[in-house]
Amino acid sequence: MVLTLDNLDDGRVVEWRLTADGIASSVRESYTPTLYIGDASGDLYGRQGGMTPSLPERDRLSPALRELRAFLDGQQAVSDLTVESHRQTFRTEARPLLRVDTASIEAVRTVAKRVRQFDQPDTYTCYNVDLTRQLRYCLETDTPAAPDRSVRDLRTLHLSFPSHESGIESLPQLTVDGDRVGSSPREVVTGLREVLEERDPDVLVLSTANLVPLLFEAADAYGVEFALGRGTGYTKLAGESTYTSYGNVGHSPARYAVPGRVIIDESNSFFYHESGLEGCLDLVGRSGLPLQELGWASIGRVLTAMQIREARSRDVLVPWRAWRPELFKTASTLDTADRGGTTFAPDVGVHENVHELDFASLYPNIIRTRNISPEAVRCGCCDTDDVPGLDYSICERDGYLPEVLGPLIDARSEIKAKIPEADGDDRERLEAASSAIKWILVSCFGYQGFSNAKFGRIECHEAINAFAREILLDAKTALEDAGWRVVHGIVDSIWVTPADERDQQPLEEVAREVSAETGIELEYECAFEWVAFCPMRNSESGALTRYFGKRRGETYPEAGLGDAIKTRGIEGRQRSTPAWIEDVQSEALRVFDETRSPEAVCDVLRRRLRELREHEVGPNGLIIDNRVSKDVDEYSMETLTVAALKRARIEGAGLTPGQTVRYVVVDADAGGTARVRLEYEDLDRYDTTWYEDATVRALESVLAPIGWREGEIRQYLSGTSDETLAGFVTE
């Protein structure tokens, strides 16, 4: 069981393990990473298995592989060439492949590229090529990836540094666990060294990984002996890059490693942000992905690691490219298959006595209960019409994907059952583990349709959607037959209210019947005193994901809405909304709950806008947070965000696509960069009119369900009527 691993330049690997006193290291002197190569034509041995193992090793290979072996033999990147039999897919038997042991981690990809260039691109198929370093080592050496916390708990150290700073002269702004360690770059490096020696942390949580080269640059400039890890120096694992995922542009910062310590970059760690260190460690144990790599891994990468472990247990190799193309479909099948989950257009307005029911982990449970797996859907060996509307067959043999997700579904159910009885550290640990698993389950469906998924397949994606549509429609029918009216439904959730002049069967009974019929639990989520479904911004049609409602029996905490009002899609849920506008909308929602009066809500707006005009609002509460989608020079419109990006470039803190820019609008009608100020500049003023307009739009979301749009709101504000008493929230 390891904490982390270091790959040395000479090919050796250092394993770092926790001990009761601190940490111990050991060196593996010879480690040769491995890839496998198959003959894509399969002329010699076909689908049913390899040649007889009694043949000499060389003769067990196809002619194409023998030719390739001769080409690779003696190359510097190659350590050894042998023949081994493995399964290339879940549907084939093991057959002889060329095993290539390489001289180093870097040599794996070098050999794979040479293989692709040796003949036509489709002549050979490479396997186990692009595994991450530490995951590969753990898999190939059967080394458990999780640190042994039965020995002792992990020690962590948090280093924070302003994201817009870059030079060593800014190092005095560095904080260690919230405290400054020096007033000059030399003092900072020296002070941090002393903290590291005293605390001896196992995990370094950095606000930005750019701190790593910056600290070493400062140490070198001032002649200070310095080590961030448990050895000298650092390694740059990858440079910064920009990527696009599901239409969104993201930024991946540079990644670094130091000897003997794990680095988690908060700006590049989804799972640390969502579930903390405990959630990350729980996933390390479940995925086999070491903590250093899980810290920066995406949901898809963690899911892939789990799939790789299941594939290896079945002696299936990991393809370098997606392993199966989309099968032929008729035009009518394509039209039917190219649909998402079922949605019922919401009934715009405010509805009393509403109940929400949700299918528990709908998509993962469809995969599990319907045996949805890449090798099972349209398997070719079963002639059945199993998938509703598509008539795809599903194999009778158990698929591998349900085997991957089943333990996660069960584990999360067990964890959620324990949470209500837990407290303190135990509760925090359980909630972190539940959150981490949730994200894997949420994403498993979409990953089947991802073109670069190692074991993905679009037919699985289509089959899951087809089952989900049928399940929600059947649930709607059952609820309506039981005397309930459906006011909204989307994919796995459904909202109902008692139908007029009908007797209602208890929802718990209906839910049990639907659960038994579908094989997936329909859970009673909660009751609402009322729910408001919003119309689209420029239409009277209902917006699918914009609503808010008061949970029955909940009260408001002092800090705000808490769990009393559930909101989705409105401004308070959007990351770009300034904190002050979010607070105004929260107050308006409370008054709306108490009065249902649009006049009272507008009185809240009138009073809060007065604060804005009289400059009683601090500029820090008006900061806008926007993600950059492309390079600043590629924008054609001079928006406020573009002005902020240009200003950041002038200030020497230019941003790349995928990063976030934070700014305050100071004069929307001005030209160029004068329209905004960045969050770290002097914020002594703001554009009152612009923020008034933004706040009115936020209040429109609250009042649109009862017919008050921006025109009605402004008309009321322009009047001279006295404010209602209900417009003031009492503490």
From TrEMBL:
Return the Pfam families for the record: DNA_pol_B (PF00136)
Any idea which GO molecular function terms this record carries?
Answer: DNA binding; DNA-directed DNA polymerase activity; nucleotide binding
Reactions performed catalytically? DNA(n) + a 2'-deoxyribonucleoside 5'-triphosphate = DNA(n+1) + diphosphate
Report the residue ranges that make up the DNA-directed DNA polymerase family B multifunctional domain in this protein.
309-675
Any idea of its EC number?
Answer: 2.7.7.7
Please give the start and end residues of each transmembrane region. Answer: none
Which SUPFAM superfamilies did the record assign?
A: DNA/RNA polymerases
GO BP, one annotated term: DNA-templated DNA replication
Q: Which InterPro entries match?
A: DNA-dir_DNA_pol_B, DNA-dir_DNA_pol_B_multi_dom, DNA/RNA_pol_sf, DNA_pol_B_thumb, DNA_pol_palm_dom_sf, DNA_pol_type-B
Alphabetized, the UniProt keywords read:
DNA-binding, DNA-directed DNA polymerase, Nucleotidyltransferase, Transferase
**Protein family (similarity comment):** Belongs to the DNA polymerase type-B family.
Which PANTHER family does this one have? DNA POLYMERASE CATALYTIC SUBUNIT, DNA POLYMERASE DELTA CATALYTIC SUBUNIT
Q: What is this protein called?
A: DNA-directed DNA polymerase
Q: Upper lineage ranks?
A: Archaea, Methanobacteriati, Methanobacteriota, Stenosarchaea group, Halobacteria
